[in-house]
Amino acid sequence: MEPIKSTSTDIEPAPVPVMLSVRGEQYFDGCDPDNTELMTEGTMTLLPDGLLLRYEESELTGMEGTTTTFELRGPQVRLIRTGKVNSQMIFEEGRQHTSLYETPFGELSVDIQTSFLRHNLTERGGILEIKYSIAVEHTATGKNLFKIRVRPKG
């Protein structure tokens, strides 16, 4: 029996350095919106069936020591945080997904209802925009927005 030969689709492409502008907005009933904007270096990896955006969080976001990855595949975007903060959220327009958040006090269930998800990302960069509402332990806590601008570094 001959050994199986590797094909180019078996190897994940190398990450490309990019500059990211990550804007987060949170809206809570009866409160002024809470906005955060982070300019940072990151990477973009083009996959045969999607792409990955990855960056390190900073003091500004309160999650220093955490790596954030946006994984875009088909109609879904998965947000994965690892390190100091560990969490996962799945965004899919018109659908609700439930995830678990690790906290120092135990795990919490988090329901994510995505109302808008669009991107035009290519190897030249682009924009990813996600609007969603969040419920913690099945209690609505607010509405959120991610708007991420990606441009090649250099």
Largest sheet composition: 10 strands, antiparallel
Order of helices and strands: EEEEEEEEEE
Give the termini distance in whole angstroms: 48 Å
Overall shape: globular
Spans of at least 5 consecutive residues with low confidence: 1-8
The protein's oligomeric status is single chain
What share of residues is helical? Answer: under 10%
Strand order of the largest sheet: 6-5-4-3-2-1-10-9-8-7
The whole-number mean of residue pLDDT values reads: 86
Number of strands: 10
Q: What Rg is obtained from the alpha carbons, in whole angstroms?
A: 17 Å
> Helix/strand/pairing class, anyone?
mainly beta
Q: Strand percentage, roughly?
A: over 45%
Number of continuous helical runs: 0
Description:
With 154 residues, the protein is mainly β. It is 0% helix and 66% strand. The protein has no helices and ten strands. It has strands at residues 16-27, 34-47, 50-56, 66-73, 76-83, 87-92, 96-103, 106-119, 126-136, 139-152. It has a ten-stranded antiparallel beta sheet with strand order 6-5-4-3-2-1-10-9-8-7, with no helix packed on it.
What's this model, at a glance?
With 154 residues, this protein is mostly beta strands.
